[in-house]
Amino acid sequence: MMADRKKEAREKFLLGGIVVKAGLAKADRAFLLGGFIELARVIAGSAEHRRLRDIGEEAFKSASSDMLSSRIGETTEWP
Q: What pTM was computed for the model?
């Protein structure tokens, strides 16, 4: 039981790190959720899926944690 909670907490921590890496830490939560819902609609293995995965792979290789922040127009503080 405790191991499951630790595993879940670590997964949430890692997912939060991805949001920060993408430069979206201060983005509106509804904006983020809408984006994630759209991403969930991308068919695995499709050209769009591969394109987005390639972008993500490159971002993980990058040393800059805010490489995409200049692309994000939505910087509303969290409520």
A: 0.67
Q: What is the pLDDT of residues 6-28, one digit of tens each?
A: 999 999 999 999 999 999 999 99
In 3D space, the residue among 58, 68, 54 whose CA is nearest the CA of residue 21 turns out to be 68
Per-residue pLDDT, 41:
98
CA distance 11 to 5: 10
| Cα→Cα distances 55→22, 35, 62, 66, 79, Å | 11, 16, 11, 14, 30
Q: Are 43 and 49 in contact (CB under 8 A)?
A: yes
Q: Please give the structure tokens belonging to residue 31.
A: 């904006």
Of 11, 17, 29, nearest to 74 by C-alpha is: 29
Cα angle for residues 24, 29, 22 (degrees, 5° grid): 15
